[in-house]
Design goal:
The chain has 18 helices and three strands. It is an all-alpha fold. InterPro entries: AA_transpt_TM.
Length: 563
């Protein structure tokens, strides 16, 4: 999912490929190594674009594709095809809208929201990301529980004693894995888990295509065919709208990777790479959906993985797919943890008076009018050398700090609104932090910073433990309504994040530069998103059910069980 790539952005500044080759060039003086460095620099852009292609393709192919065949069969293949293409088109427009909002300034999704609407916009964006990730997690937990239950029932020949076997145990035992992983601070520590999740996902998707193709071929050879309607009534089509929106949620992933590119040429070419890769994903989704739908017809289950037979290889495939989802869950919640950590840091800075709201282009000369009792002979004005280390230690609370040692001046620049009592505010912070001209005080400041880091880690981990318990509880509650859950998640959470907010931010950022046609167009996109959410909520409430399709339903389809 897209969350995995979003979390990868956190440490992209640590070391880049370009920096690696720059170090090679500076450390090597021989002509041969310099030539190698030049060749590498010329080819690095293509490496970045290839990685971008793989990133987008993998981010857009997830668990949502497993629910499309059932919805496709219910809505009709013409209606279903139209809805898939329509929301794909809306997604592409939204992605390019976001890329224009970032304007080569490497703004994240939340920073774009802040640029557009200030603090309320950032809160709105953070809330959209958080709710989307949490809702995806709930879907995944329900998916895991249902599939493990079906595997157990299939192994025991659908015995009544093993039908819906201990759902609470299967659901909540997952916390044993999720809680320790969510307490890890760096997503890079989960690198091996990412690789395993991707491998299991690829094997699972390809295996489902193979099984569906075999089923379809057997039907054709035996003269059997499933009649899928061209279209159905709008009520049935509404059941596909949320799933269609669920399929294309990858805006934060694309934006994150776009911002990681360092050259303008790379960014320009990446837009074409994105368009090509997402088009291939569209073709792959349509092929997968058509094959699966016509292979099983109206007997297709949601998710399609339940249609696999009870053979040992098929059960292994299901287990691999379950593992891919299990390994992906901690990655889904890492963006939520980063957002939580940011807000904890804001709260700590507020209560420690570390945030200075300074105006643009104000230069402040620092003078110390408070003499220490033991240093009466010292000048009131101290050299900036005495304060430099201490200021650097609290520089995280000041947006820009420039040291002018020659003139003994400290230049502070900030884009905040308040321009009053700047010197008094700075003195208050210095006094509060006990910043003096001695080593012991510097150690105290460092100790305070280390303590704040521990507080952030502890509280963010505790909050994520509560979030994981909440997601697990909700996943257990909705385990028998998985299809409805996916539909409502797509319409209520995915549509705002991927459709409504990008156009809304664009209208706010460029409000003084847009003509009437552009304003009407993006207003129409917002309206489509709002109507989609309303329609999906209405459909889900009217058609909500608590019946769960399972592997044992295959027996009613006259399929033989092999072990």
């Amino acid at each position: 999912m897209y969350s995995e790539e979003l979390t990868n952005k956190q440490d992209t500044s640590a070391i880049t490929i370009n920096e690696t080759f720059e170090s090679i060039e500076t450390s090597s003086k021989s002509p041969g190594l310099e030539d190698i460095s030049d060749i590498c620099k010329k080819n690095i852009i293509y490496v970045e674009l290839i990685i971008g292609f793989v990133t987008i393709f993998k981010a857009a192919i997830g668990t949502g594709i497993l629910f499309s065949p059932k919805a496709f069969a219910n809505s009709g293949y013409v209606s279903g095809t139209f809805l898939i293409i329509f929301y794909w088109f809306i997604n592409v427009i939204s992605i390019f809208t976001l890329l224009k909002c970032t304007n080569n300034m490497n703004y994240s999704y939340s920073e774009i929201a802040t640029l557009a609407m200030g603090i309320p916009g950032r809160i709105m964006a953070d809330l959209a990301i958080t709710t989307t990730e949490i809702s995806f997690t709930i879907v995944y937990i329900s998916f895991i529980t249902d599939n493990i239950q079906d595997i157990i029932a299939g192994i025991y020949n659908c015995s009544n004693n093993y039908m819906n076997y201990k759902p609470a145990l299967i659901t909540f035992i997952q916390l044993v894995l999720y809680i320790p992983l969510l307490c890890i601070d760096r997503v890079q520590s989960l690198g091996l888990i990412m690789i395993l999740a991707n491998i299991c996902l690829i094997i699972g998707i390809l295996s489902i295509i193979i099984y569906s193709s075999i089923e379809l071929s057997n039907n054709i050879l035996n003269g059997k065919s499933h009649l899928i309607p061209l279209y159905t009534n709008p009520n049935n089509a509404a059941g596909f709208i949320g799933i269609a929106a669920f399929l294309w949620v990858c805006a934060p992933v694309v934006l994150s990777y776009y911002n990681s590119l360092e050259t303008l040429k790379s960014k320009l070419l990446f837009k074409w790479v994105y368009l090509f890769s997402i088009f291939l994903v569209l073709i792959f989704t349509l092929i997968f959906t058509f094959i699966s739908t016509f292979a099983y017809g109206t007997n297709v289950f949601s998710p399609i993985i339940l249609n696999l037979p009870f053979t040992v290889p098929a059960i292994i495939v299901k287990l691999l797919y379950i593992l891919s989802v299990v390994f992906s869950l901690p990655l889904l919640l890492f963006p939520v943890k980063e957002i939580v950590k940011n807000y904890i840091i804001y709260i700590l800075r507020y209560f420690n008076n570390k945030i200075l709201k300074l105006s643009n282009n104000h230069n402040i000369e620092i003078s110390n009018n408070n003499n220490d009792n033991n240093n009466d002979n010292n000048n009131n004005k101290h050299s900036i050398n005495d304060y430099e280390l201490s200021y650097k230690q609290v520089s995280s609370s000041i947006s820009t700090i420039d040291f002018d040692k020659d003139e003994n001046r400290l230049t502070l620049t900030n884009s905040n609104r308040n321009n009053l009592t700047i010197l008094d505010r700075l003195k208050k912070v210095l006094l509060h932090c006990s910043i003096k001209m001695n080593k012991s005080t510097n150690n105290k400041v460092k100790s305070m910073e280390d303590n704040n880091k521990r507080i952030v880690h502890i509280y963010s981990s505790l909050i994520m433990i509560l979030v994981s318990i909440f997601c697990t509880t909700m996943g257990y509650s909705f385990r028998n309504s998985l299809t409805n859950l996916v539909n409502i998640v797509g319409g209520v959470f995915c549509v705002p994040l991927n459709t409504i907010l990008p156009s809304l931010f664009y209208l706010f950022i460029f409000k003084n530069k847009l003509n009437l046609g552009v304003v009407v167009f993006h207003s129409l996109i917002i309206l489509i998103g709002i109507l989609t959410s309303i329609h999906v909520i209405w459909y889900s409430i009217i058609n909500w059910n608590v019946t769960s399709e399972n592997m044992c339903s295959l027996i009613n389809s006259n399929k033989t069980i092999y072990f």
